[in-house]
Amino acid sequence: MIESLLVANRGEIARRVIRTARRLGIRAIAVYSEADADLPFVAEADEAVLIGPPNPAQSYRNVEAILAAAKSTGAQAIHPGYGFLSENAEFARTVEASGLIWVGPGADAITAMGDKINARNLMAAAGVPVAPGTTDPAADLDAAVAAAAAIGYPVMVKAAAGGGGMGMGVAVDEAALRSEYDKVRAFAERMFGDGSVLIERYFPRVRHVEVQILGLADGRVVALGERECSVQRRNQKLVEESPSPAVSPELRARLLAAAVRAGEAVGYRNAGTVECLLVPRQRDSEGDGPATEEFFFLEMNTRLQVEHPVTEYVYGVDLVEEQLRVAAGLAPTFDPDALAPSGHAIELRINAEDPKRFLPGPGVVKTWIEPTGVGVRVDSGYTGGNTVTPFYDSLMAKLILSGDTREQAIERARTAVAEFQIEGPKNNLPFFAELLENDEFLDGTYDTGIVSRMR
């Protein structure tokens, strides 16, 4: 097993990786910016290195500073967490060229999946369903208009190099497309350094379901069930649960098989997620459902996901430990031929944001009291006295509730949300209290429009 691990990230995910590393007897090394010096992950690491000012470009995206920290501390491996450099193929190559172990998929797989158009084409060739869309970037507005006419409105205009729900717009007709194309292209050039644009069929009512895959050290790819991720604002997730209330055993088998084919198509190693859109159909005449009849590949996230804890509960694994074992060339802790889910888990993302408009609301944490009890897990990046700054993502903590049934997990979620006390930064706990009484959510029939219908 790896003996020393540098975590090239911050906050909740850094603390999460450090926790598993220390349980396994691995020396955990943190890097931090000046803004994060007082956060729990810094104190909990065996060693911590200041790498720069608050600006991520000068700290958490500063490759030279991170590699210098690894060298000075004698780190053997680097875990990138999620965000920042986690899906940067050049960083992965540089880490390995420096003689360090990269805890993630190979750089070639990251490159292959990093461009949405290339990824779509690879998946289609592998027999994974993809939505109608362009096989090449829409080089200019005229090409986008022609593509949309062939696909049929409405269409989604996407940044080919985008991710995290950013760089997307919906066009219901040609006039809207002309506006959205220019906006998405400009955003993509500014944020990703690549203005390539993809045109794809837009489905007004869909569910967002993803499959957790793990590429093992022996070359096999296995799937650890699906997660429902349809509670979103601005195309970014707020709630995840596993298993999905929309997925039947027959559909689950098809989803998981397609996700494994996706991983195999790029020689995937380590943890990753295959994201899909499910197109719901109406309840049948006897009121059974909801059912789904189609699913399409959306993208592959070549890293550990924020929502990985719900899979950990349902499958009884520690995905960070499995990542470390794969990176070290070791077999998994579980039998890949005997994977069996049990129970239900729900994750709520506790963000420093207004619960109505979802605008960021950083500030000093005056009170931080986490809920406890059976089936309650809190993965937090902050505690009382810390400051949530405007420099990074607004995620403060993840509240994970588990139970034997979905109903039990929801009831535990209600209690935990009521008990979680945060004063100082704005937070979205009131939104979750509302969601957990919403009929669509409770009966499992919701789709990606649920938040907008609640507002």
Automatic annotation (TrEMBL):
<dbReference type="Pfam" id="PF00289">
    <property type="entry name" value="Biotin_carb_N"/>
</dbReference>
<keyword id="KW-0436">Ligase</keyword>
<feature type="domain" description="ATP-grasp">
    <location>
        <begin position="120"/>
        <end position="328"/>
    </location>
</feature>
<dbReference type="InterPro" id="IPR005481">
    <property type="entry name" value="BC-like_N"/>
</dbReference>
<keyword id="KW-0670">Pyruvate</keyword>
<dbReference type="GO" id="GO:0005524">
    <property type="term" value="F:ATP binding"/>
</dbReference>
<protein>
    <recommendedName>
        <fullName>biotin carboxylase</fullName>
        <ecNumber>6.3.4.14</ecNumber>
    </recommendedName>
</protein>
<dbReference type="InterPro" id="IPR005479">
    <property type="entry name" value="CPAse_ATP-bd"/>
</dbReference>
<feature type="domain" description="Biotin carboxylation">
    <location>
        <begin position="1"/>
        <end position="455"/>
    </location>
</feature>
<dbReference type="InterPro" id="IPR050856">
    <property type="entry name" value="Biotin_carboxylase_complex"/>
</dbReference>
<dbReference type="Pfam" id="PF02786">
    <property type="entry name" value="CPSase_L_D2"/>
</dbReference>
<dbReference type="Pfam" id="PF02785">
    <property type="entry name" value="Biotin_carb_C"/>
</dbReference>
<dbReference type="InterPro" id="IPR005482">
    <property type="entry name" value="Biotin_COase_C"/>
</dbReference>
<keyword id="KW-0067">ATP-binding</keyword>
<dbReference type="InterPro" id="IPR016185">
    <property type="entry name" value="PreATP-grasp_dom_sf"/>
</dbReference>
<dbReference type="GO" id="GO:0046872">
    <property type="term" value="F:metal ion binding"/>
</dbReference>
<keyword id="KW-0092">Biotin</keyword>
<dbReference type="InterPro" id="IPR011054">
    <property type="entry name" value="Rudment_hybrid_motif"/>
</dbReference>
<keyword id="KW-0547">Nucleotide-binding</keyword>
<dbReference type="InterPro" id="IPR011764">
    <property type="entry name" value="Biotin_carboxylation_dom"/>
</dbReference>
<dbReference type="GO" id="GO:0004075">
    <property type="term" value="F:biotin carboxylase activity"/>
</dbReference>
<dbReference type="InterPro" id="IPR011761">
    <property type="entry name" value="ATP-grasp"/>
</dbReference>
